Amino acid sequence: MTRARQDRLLALLTRDGEWVTAGALADSLGVTPRSIRSYVTALNGRVPTGSAVDSGPQGYRAGTEASAALKANGGADAATPRDRLHTLVRSLLAADDGIDVFETADTLHVSPATLDADLARVRSLLGGTELTLERSAARARLRGTEMAQRRLLSKLAHDEMDAGSFDLVALRRTLGEGSVGAAAFGPFKTDLVAELGALGYFVNEYGIADVVMHIAIAADRVAHDRGLDGAGGEVRPAQVEVAAILERLAEKHLGVRLGTGDLQHLSTLVLTRVVAPGTAAPGEHARSRLDPAVEGAVRQVVETAAAEFLVDIAHEDFVLRLALHVQNLLHRSKEQAWSRNPLTKSLKSSYPMIFEVAVFIASGLQQRLGIPLLDDEIAYIAMHVGGRLERSRRSDQLLTATIVCPGYYELHELLRSSVDRSLGQAIEVVGVETRVDPDWASIDTDLVLTTIDPAIAGDRIVRIQPFLTDADVDRVQTAAARIRRARRLARLRTEIEGYFMPAAFVRGLDGEAGEAAVIRTLGGPLVADGVIEEDYLERAIQREQLSSTAFTDALAVPHAMGMTATRTAIAIGIADPSIPWGEGRVQVVALVAFSETDREAFQTVFEQFVEVFSERESVQRIVRRGTDFPSFLDELVAVIDG
């Protein structure tokens, strides 16, 4: 657990890239500031020649060797429970007749009792792998198919890799130092992506990295005479084509000749992570590859989601692309080869509304097609949703701007052209004033970009040069971002104050009983006031089980799918110190109940509320000072007002 918390600490610092106090880090990890200091010492000990974590008056931040520290095996820390567990699993997988418990304990320099405890942890890893651990006197052995053993190796590899990203050094630690050389996989992946692209496939780099991990496992197992049994079932022409590529590249780069069973399995994995027909928009060719039942289910769910959330996603090209993805997902579910997504956490925290739409779609697909969906798979659906919404974003979301540039030859025209070229995606120039004495008060655009000193002051006025510089572009973008944020939060303040209930404020949440107990505690006052019924809380718990609603490192927003409240209301719970939630910890829990009449407000409140609590300093201010409902509301409003 200590090593895992050290890694978690370093991951937080690496992601933020800023100074963070020991207290804030302690809240995020659920430990004391003293523990944070000991973790920092241990992390820096992993890289004796550099600094994994920098210390200063403002707290801690990631050092120049942070990445190396995450990948370090640990030297003196190499005997951690996780490293010992992985060594034990590799020994069990390598020995057909099992291992001698006492000899293995001696080899690992631990007591037989400690090894027994490690074997119990091995059993906990076997869920969903179709493997069993047998113990007879001094011998312990794993029983199960070769495919099941590979799934266990895949689980170990993902455990070694940070945030699901592909890491060849970590993979080699999982497979053992005698595995196929890691250096060969860079050229292998490069050639694989190039050849798939030449065949007209769109390659998902996140998915293909996961496939390379499976290829590494297969190559290592085949090298030890543990190949898969012969192929079975129908083989599609596309599989034959991809299998030929894999066979040739494996022999060229890895020195391994894959058998028929391995080639069929791996070609299936490759085909479930690439989408034809290349750069052309999906059309009849794409539909011909689709199971009509899958397309029909996706279409129904998308149309329902579009109506439920008032989002513009019910487009033919979106339905076809998502249906192709879901069909691949069905193949992956049969193989139990789930695709990791290193963007899952950032998608959830940065685009909570998009992720919520994805959860709704995933739930509908689960009901119609019986696909068990993990957070990483939901994140891929969120990427489809976000791409569609980005393409259909309306031009009226741009900020309007007026350029003030006194006329001299074509100077104002050149400036407008430069602004359009450099800032056209952020602002829309709707007017140009060429007088040296314009009526400043009459200019009502969102921004005023002026080459002369203005007669009035204001945040929306930005001084620029007649010939636009990079510094001018940065200032305009900063001002535009500030205006957008102010507008978003102003809408939030207007709407949110009326949604809070003083009776539904709990200070000192107890998270020991789990998320369901916290949801029921916060929901009690809402039920008593007639805002929701008990059924809403049960559905909120079911929604939590689909995907954690911990959208930031500090905030969870549990809610039910379906806007069935009699009026919109928010119950707030404060936890100090933090409590476990999903795979992380939070300090604020906001149980949200929306009514049908506030459907349009859902997006604003949901996204902007999450945005406020994504800033660590704001969270700490609200948690520390919000000792009762009036002070909580005062601090929240103060943070929103900036």
List the helices and strands and how they pair.
Elements lengths: L1 H15 L5 H8 L3 H14 L6 E4 L2 E4 L3 H6 L9 H14 L4 E2 H8 L3 H14 L6 E5 L2 E5 L2 H15 L7 H8 L9 H14 L3 E2 L1 H19 L13 H18 L5 H12 L2 E2 L8 H5 L3 H18 L6 H20 L8 H7 L1 H18 L5 H17 L7 E6 L6 H13 L3 E7 L13 E4 L10 E3 L6 H27 L3 E8 L7 H14 L5 H13 L8 E2 L12 E13 L2 E10 L5 H14 L3 H10 L3 H13 L1
Parallel strand pairs: 8-9, 8-10, 10-11, 12-14, 13-15
Antiparallel strand pairs: 1-2, 3-5, 4-5, 6-7, 14-15
Helix pairs in contact: 1-3, 2-3, 5-7, 6-7, 8-9, 8-11, 10-12, 11-13, 12-13, 15-16, 15-18, 16-19, 17-18, 18-19, 21-24, 22-23, 25-26
InterPro entries: BglG_antiterminators, PRD, PRD_sf, PTrfase/Anion_transptr, PTS_EIIA_type-2_dom, WH-like_DNA-bd_sf
Organism: Microbacterium pygmaeum
Protein name: Transcriptional antiterminator, BglG family
How do you describe this structure in short?
By secondary structure, the chain is of the alpha/beta class.
Characterization of this structure:
This is Transcriptional antiterminator, BglG family. InterPro entries: BglG_antiterminators, PRD, PRD_sf, PTrfase/Anion_transptr, PTS_EIIA_type-2_dom, WH-like_DNA-bd_sf. Keywords: Repeat. The chain has a four-stranded parallel beta sheet, covered by helices on one side. A four-stranded mixed beta sheet has the order 12-14-15-13. β4 and β5 form a beta hairpin. The two termini are 38 Å apart. It folds into five domains: 76 residues, Arc Repressor Mutant, subunit A; 102 residues; 108 residues, PTS-regulatory domain, PRD; 89 residues, Response regulator (Rossmann fold, 3-Layer(aba) Sandwich); 145 residues, Mannitol-specific EII, Chain A, CATH 3.40.930.10. By secondary structure, it is an alpha/beta fold. It is built from 26 helices and 15 strands. The longest helix is centred in the C-terminal third of the chain and has 27 residues. About 2% of the residues have low confidence. It is globular, with a radius of gyration of 28 Å.
